[in-house]
Design goal:
By secondary structure, the protein is an all-alpha fold. Helix content is 68%, strand content 3%. It is found in: Cell membrane; Bacterial flagellum basal body.
């Protein structure tokens, strides 16, 4: 007959609870997993499944009671780490949304806003279109599987410990915030540049022929040029989006101070 002492049972629960907290923190905020349209039961089941994979790989922490102050601090630390990793994924999608907002405003579609179920706010039509395209690329390239692998591997680069430093670099997380503007500029620059040239041409045309109604012809021309440029850049969006996701995965792996992300697989 197999007998398990109470201390062994507590250690087993702790070895499962602490990685589960980090994983659930990631799933709660990282799109598309953190989308409000995803049922809570699905998120919880996914977190439990991943935690069952991670738990046997983690070295147990001796002499730490889950209900003690130290145990609660470990839970909070793991939750913060998971939220930070999910926040990095959210920044990538926020950069895509920013690109759509900039392109839409430049085209004159600032009034064409819709309810966004993910953020429970309003976003432009171009922004939602680019986010949908990015989500499809995200799933088709199996980036979600690579992210799960990165989260599992993060327990080696950022191990569970009682140290307050956590082996986690908040500086790298703060620097990652600049990616919103970099991604937004990268995606929207062709459309903005084309519309800038269009507006300059319309300005010259108005000066040459003042009798033209610039408000009557300018609005449909800018919208038409914007949609034309959007259709031209769509076939070429895959390489930059793929590079963005690869950079995201490498940056998440470097949060623990590991300068060699070679153990990660490339996106296929």
């Amino acid at each position: 007959m197999v007998s398990i002492s109470s201390q062994e049972l507590i250690d087993l629960i702790a070895a499962f609870l602490w990685p589960l907290t980090r994983i659930l923190g990631f799933i709660a905020i990282a799109p598309p997993f953190g989308n409000n349209g995803v049922p809570v039961q699905v998120k919880l089941a996914l977190g439990v499944f991943l935690a069952m994979i991670v738990a046997p790989m983690i070295d147990p922490i001796q002499d730490v009671d889950m209900l003690s102050v130290t145990g609660i601090m470990i839970v909070l630390q793991q939750f913060i780490i998971g939220l930070a990793m999910g926040f990095m994924v959210r920044i990538v999608f926020a950069g895509i949304e920013m690109a759509g907002e900039v392109a839409g405003l430049t085209m004159g579609l600032g009034f064409a806003t819709f309810f966004d179920p993910q953020t429970r706010g309003r976003s432009s039509a171009i922004s939602q279109f680019l986010v949908i395209i990015t989500t499809l690329v995200f799933l088709s390239l199996n980036v979600h599987l690579v992210l799960f692998e990165t989260i599992i591997t993060s327990f080696k680069s950022i191990p569970i410990s009682t140290s307050l430093s956590m082996g986690f670099s908040f500086q790298k997380l703060a620097i990652w915030g600049e990616e919103i503007f970099k991604i937004g500029l990268l995606i929207s620059l062709p459309i903005v540049a084309a519309l800038l040239i269009t507006n300059i041409a319309l300005g010259i045309l108005t000066r040459a022929a003042p009798q033209l109604n610039i408000f009557g012809i300018g609005f449909p021309i800018t919208i038409g040029v914007g949609f034309l440029m959007l259709s031209l850049i769509l076939p070429h969006l895959l390489p930059p989006i793929e590079n963005i996701f690869q950079h995201l995965i490498d940056s998440i792996s470097l949060l623990g101070g590991n300068q060699d992300p070679s153990y990660l697989r490339s996106i296929n």
